[in-house]
Design brief:
- The chain is mainly alpha-helical and 245 residues long.
- It has helices at 3-11, 25-50, 55-92, 102-111, 114-130, 139-150, 153-185, 189-202, 210-229, 235-243.
- Helix 1 packs across helix 10 (235-243).
- The radius of gyration is 24 Å and the shape is elongated.
Length: 245
């Protein structure tokens, strides 16, 4: 490839707003797993607090919950989401490639019976826990109450709200990326540097967004070079910054 062609190709990427990536299904599925896992954990805490039992029993149930949540709740969430999406896609009659954002993924999982699949997963988890042991008093009551909560509107609305919050976080992050580009094009390199630091710090909030990850990496690469030069980098250098992602 001739040098002029490389430079011209780089110009099409010069505006970071034009650097759009395909939806990353696996990363979004991972984020939905995290949301559902946390909803199960918080839901179990709510259930334990609401049970009309002495504090000593609540402490025992909390110990049980803590012993199973890391592997148990995560496995239940992952399995339920996977099967619910598959069932939802079959029910609607579309394929996986039609999912373009996490909100659509959550909606399809919901149509595929997410809460019922979670309930079934908790039943398996309960049976696995009490097998070959004498469970403490109220253990079965805890699992039954958790399943009742999973089938409630409160639980489902919690998942919907968390998905919506994450989508808003991604949108706000990308808006900051656009703001950084305006500072960069206006030669406001000190302000661009400060904003790049904010973006790097806030990346953990949107760590499962492929677009946020990639745009942040480009911004960090360009900011480093432009700060050193106190000038915009060349089109060829811009191209190289993109290629490093």
């Amino acid at each position: 490839m001739k040098l002029n062609n490389v430079i011209n190709e780089g110009k099409s990427l010069y505006n970071i707003d034009n650097y759009n990536l395909d939806f990353n299904y696996d990363l979004s599925c991972k984020q939905l797993n995290n949301i559902v896992y946390k909803a199960l954990d918080k839901g179990s805490e709510y259930v334990i607090k609401s049970l009309p039992v002495p504090d000593q029993i609540k402490n025992i149930l909390t110990d049980i919950k803590n012993s199973i949540k890391k592997d148990g709740f995560k496995k239940v969430a992952e399995t339920a989401i996977k099967s619910s999406i598959e069932e939802g896609l079959q029910l609607i009659g579309i394929n996986k490639s039609c999912i373009k954002d996490i909100s659509k993924m959550q909606e399809i999982a919901e149509k595929g019976g997410l809460c019922f699949n979670l309930e079934a997963g908790i039943d398996i988890l309960k049976n696995s826990y009490i097998k070959d042991r004498i469970p403490p008093r109220y253990t079965e009551t805890f699992f039954e109450s958790l399943n009742n909560y999973i089938l409630s509107n409160d639980f489902l609305n919690n998942i919907r709200n968390k998905v919506k919050e994450y989508s808003i976080d991604v949108e706000m992050y990308l808006n900051k990326c656009s703001k950084w580009y305006k500072l960069y094009t206006n030669h406001e390199f000190d302000k661009a540097l400060e904003l790049s630091k904010e973006l790097q710090k806030e990346l953990s909030q949107v760590k499962n967004s492929n677009e946020c990850i990639s745009k942040n990496q480009i911004i960090q690469n360009v900011t480093k070079l432009s700060t050193e030069k106190q000038d915009k980098i060349s089109d060829l250098e811009m191209k190289l910054c993109h290629n490093l992602v």
